[in-house]
Amino acid sequence: MLPSGHRMRRRDDFTLAVRRGRRAGRPNVVVHLLHRDEDPEAADPPLVGFIVARTVGNAVVRNAVRRRLRHQVRAHLDRLPAGSLLVVRANPAAGKARPDELAADLESALDRLLRPASKGRR
Fold first, then answer.
1. What is the CATH number of the domain that holds 78?
2. Where does the chain show beta strands of DSSP type E?
3. Count of CB atoms within 10 A of residue 37's CB?
4. Residue 120 within a domain
5. pLDDT tens string 5-21
6. pLDDT of amino acid 76
């Protein structure tokens, strides 16, 4: 379970992360990460939100996918910068994906977003 202090609850945070954050997509998930550099001394915890649309499946399938993703993200919380916003969006393929496939896609996307940006790309 994801600790409650790390849950993203405000719509504005979701919108900000999706529109302005960096994005990495994989077959089962798309991950958006926004580093907020407001006040370096205010060490706010990273906030994580999940978007699982109806295209993933019925309510039972969507909730199962959300639970699996929450469990996987918990292991990566220490890698996220303080005060950052992370949104994990499940693609329709996530409804039929095995848990290990979801975990591999999530880890691959996070690795790409947390890698230092090269000088040639923005």
1. 3.30.230.10
2. 22-25, 29-34, 47-52, 85-90
3. 8
4. no
5. 889 999 999 999 999 99
6. 92
The answer to the question of residue 119 being in a domain is no
Structural domain harbouring 76: 6-114
Q: Give 27's contacts (C-beta < 8 A, 6+ positions apart).
A: 91, 93, 97, 105
Quick one: tokens of 57? 């499946």
Measured CA to CA, the distance from residue 52 to residue 40 in angstroms comes to 32
CB-based contact 106:75 (threshold 8 Å): no
Rg (CA), the chain: 14
Which pair of tokens denotes residue 49?
A: 């939100």
3-state secondary structure of 68: helix
Q: What is the pTM of this model?
A: 0.86
**Which pair of structure tokens corresponds to residue 41?**
């001394």
User: How many whole angstroms from its chain centre is CA 34?
Assistant: 10
Kindly state whether residue 1 falls inside one of the protein's structural domains.
no
